Each structure stands twice: as C-alpha cells, then as structure tokens.
C-alpha cells in the first residue's frame, strides 16, 4: 500500500538516509526504531510527504507521491495521512473539539458535520470532558489523545506518529498507545511510529531497525 524504494537524504555532510526500501500493508502497525541520529524522523517525514528524498521513490497505492507538486502533495496528505508529531500540530487558540474538526474542514466538510464527527472521536478517545477546553488547559495525556483523535478523524490510510508517548509517564503512554492502535485497527488504518522505547515497539506487528540511515533487519513480531 505504502512503499519506499531506495530512499536517500543528506543534510550537508550528514547522510541521514542511505538507501532505505520497505513496504507497509493496509492496516499494518510498524515501529521504526534505532538510536538518536539513525534517521528515524527523516524516514517518517519522507514517507509522510513532509520531506522530499533526494533519491528513491515513495509510492502510495501505486502512485508515486514524492515528486508531486506541493499543492497536490498537500491535498494528498490531508486526504490520506494523519500525523501525531511531537510538537505543534494542535492549535492552542482553538478548543479540543475544534482542533479535531479542523482536518475535516480542510477536506471541505460542513462545519456542523465536522463538529459532530470530531465530538464522536473525542468520545472514542475518552476525552469528551475536554471538548470545549483550549489546548493550553489540557494535561499532556489529554493533549496526546486529542492529537490521536485529530490524526484519525478523516479515516486516513496511514497515521504517522513520532514518539507518540515521548512526553508521558509509562501508564499514560500505554493508554495512549492502546487508544491509538485500537482505533487504527478498527478502521484498518496503518500506523507507522518512531520510537526508541522497546515497550512501545512491542505493540507493533513489525519492527524496522535503523542504524546510520540504513535498515538493519525487519523483525516480525
Ligand atoms: P529525534 O531524535 O526525536 O528525531 P531530534 O531532536 O534529533 O529528535 O530532531 C528533531 C527534528 O529537528 C528532526 O526531525 C529534524 O528535522 C530536525 N533536526 C535534527 N537534527 C538537526 C540538525 N542538526 N540541524 C537542523 N535540524 C535538525
Ligand atoms: P533520528 O530521528 O533517528 O534521531 P533524524 O532523522 O532526526 O534521526 O536525523 C538523522 C541525521 O540527520 C542526524 O545526524 C541529524 O542531526 C540529521 N538531520 C536531521 N534533520 C536535519 C536537518 N533538518 N538539518 C540538518 N541535519 C539534520
């Protein structure tokens, strides 16, 4: 469904990715692991269409996406991908429910429908009580749940998550992971997550270990 073929990317003298190839199936949950600087975030960003690789291809459902013009790539990201990145995807001036409704509004759904669907996703993530609070008033765990709801609300093909539990204690982290993966499994959404935490990687169907921009091995779980 989503395929990387020989991805390469450098930042100055640093070879962040050095020929990474992989294929992710519909509904599959994949963990990208490795030490700091291994290229995990760069790989995730290339797959998610926010960084363009210098060499190689990214292919979604048979269509090459890394060479699309910016406007088409943005449209494709909004329709097919959800992201839970570490920083900045929630808008602090908006309430929780407005944040979750935003991707639907970008995809031209009406406001009434967007707010109704957003409220349903907050309920699925068990954060209905925060619906009308602004992001700044929420705890870290509540924010993560809102971010997960926002990533899933459009019914994407793939959700990309960078250290989705990085800012949380273990119990809160496990609850967010369970919520993310449970919701993804019921909607057949693939999840690609970056983590250095083995307990988080243990939730995945498959682990892709990176060192110095290259894959060590695929470990089936
Ligand atoms: P992580 O180890 O979780 O990827 P980093 O702090 O290494 O976190 O990187 C966070 C983001 O900052 C990366 O996604 C990358 O785009 C950017 N970044 C990382 N290293 C550099 C660098 N040397 N110069 C500029 N930006 C960087
Ligand atoms: P990881 O997520 O595994 O920590 P990254 O993909 O963030 O690794 O980074 C891989 C390498 O590329 C690191 O050496 C990092 O410093 C470098 N890097 C990543 N993003 C940037 C950037 N925007 N500018 C400069 N260097 C970067």
Tell me what you see in this structure.
The structure is a single chain. The chain is α/β, with parallel strands linked by helices and 221 residues long. It has one domain (28-37, 75-220): P-loop containing nucleotide triphosphate hydrolases (Rossmann fold, 3-Layer(aba) Sandwich). It is 35% helix and 28% strand. The chain contains seven helices and ten strands. The protein has helices at 40-47, 70-80, 96-106, 111-124, 140-152, 170-186, 198-201, and strands spanning 2-11, 14-24, 29-33, 55-60, 63-64, 81-84, 158-162, 190-194, 206-211, 214-220. The strands form two sheets. Strands 6-7-8-3-9-10 form a six-stranded mixed β-sheet, sandwiched between helices. A four-stranded antiparallel β-sheet has the order 2-1-4-5, covered by helices on one side. A hairpin with a 2-residue loop joins strand 1 and strand 2. Helix 3 packs across helix 4 (111-124), helix 3 packs parallel to helix 5 and helix 5 (140-152) packs parallel to helix 6 (170-186). The two termini are 20 Å apart. It binds adenosine-5'-diphosphate (2 copies). One adenosine-5'-diphosphate binds at residues 36, 41, 163. The site of one adenosine-5'-diphosphate (ADP) has 3 residues, from loops.
């Amino acid at each position: 469904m989503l395929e990387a073929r020989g991805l390469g990317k450098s930042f100055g003298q640093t070879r962040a990715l050095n020929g990474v190839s992989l294929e992710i199936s519909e509904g599959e949950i994949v963990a990208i692991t490795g030490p700091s600087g291994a290229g995990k975030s760069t790989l995730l960003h290339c797959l998610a269409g926010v960084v363009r690789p210098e060499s190689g291809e990214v292919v979604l459902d048979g269509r090459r996406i890394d060479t699309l013009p910016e406007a088409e790539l943005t449209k494709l990201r909004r329709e097919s991908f959800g992201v839970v990145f570490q920083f900045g995807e929630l808008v602090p001036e908006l309430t929780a429910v407005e944040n979750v409704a935003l991707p639907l509004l970008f995809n031209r759904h009406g406001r009434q429908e967007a707010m109704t669907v957003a409220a349903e996703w907050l309920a699925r993530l068990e954060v209905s009580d925060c619906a009308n609070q602004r992001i700044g008033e929420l705890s870290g765990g509540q924010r993560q749940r809102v971010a997960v709801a926002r990533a899933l609300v459009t019914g994407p093909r793939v959700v990309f998550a960078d250290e989705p539990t990085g800012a949380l204690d273990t119990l809160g982290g496990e609850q967010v992971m369970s919520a993310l993966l449970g919701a993804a499994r019921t909607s057949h959404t693939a999840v690609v997550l970056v983590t250095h935490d083995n307990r988080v990687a243990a939730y995945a169907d498959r682990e892709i270990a990176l060192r110095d921009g290259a894959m060590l091995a695929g470990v089936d779980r």
